[in-house]
Amino acid sequence: MGIPAELRRIPPGPTLAWVAGHFGPGARVTAVRRLPNAWAAAVHAVDVDDGRGARHDLVIRRWARRDLAPDPGVVENEAAALTLLASAPEVRTPALVAADSAGAGADVPAVVMTRLHGRDVLAPTDLDRFLDGLASALRAVHSIAVPPTAGLGEYRPWGLDERTEPPRWTTRPEVWRRAFEIVRRPVPAYTPVLCHRDFHPGNVLWRYGRMTGVVDWTHACRGPAAADVAHCRANLAILFGHDAADEFARRYGPVADLEWFDVVDVVGWSTLDAWRWHDAGRTDITDDSLARTADEFLAAAVDRMS
Asked: At the fourth CATH level, which superfamily is domain 119-304?
């Protein structure tokens, strides 16, 4: 599978006009470009001239895929997360500009936010400094207070109901069967924190060697710190190997039941989809390498629970 056509297409004119309209009657869009490393929704950088001498650097996220409907409440959830984060100096994040859950102004459900400077880094020159930065950023995220009235959802594992048999590509079916027994257990008790829910190197921006922010708060929730640590570990194992994943966890610090969340994260993978990594610039990652990583990462987690 390649990049879905809906992700490649520039937002239609009326949608761009809706974006510009938030900056006054004389505002107009001057540039649009697709941002890579997005697969569930179409993400585009949009520059707006407000007609009064100011330029606004924005991002629009649109749930445009015909084969992948947005989760219920996803637009409202990201809007709630960005609203909460606007008063949290611990982490630099985009600011909410507009949310359209019904696709009334945009052509499909959409969120518009300010654009941070920087880019994701999936092949750092200094892995040691990179892991330090990731761990520090995630600790900062988890330090932000989340009142029950913030409007965020509660944590729930992804994809477990959809996976009942070992995937066809695995060479370790016995490990997957043991994993299924593990994920049927209740979620371990936890103290809720602000859980990014998709924290990994692709959602952390850098510029000139310095971190500039954390993006993609679509699925932020009140949840366990271990869920974020495990998800980042799985992605680090894909990108840099298992030693990097283990080192990240060490630098973040102890979290309860990490092995359970490691298992859940891998079992929740729906497909391998190496094209996502190719779009992000890591063309060396293949479906075969993803399968090996998943099997090895899962086996290590299952063994830790034995």
From this structure: Aminoglycoside phosphotransferase (APH), C-terminal lobe (3.90.1200.10)
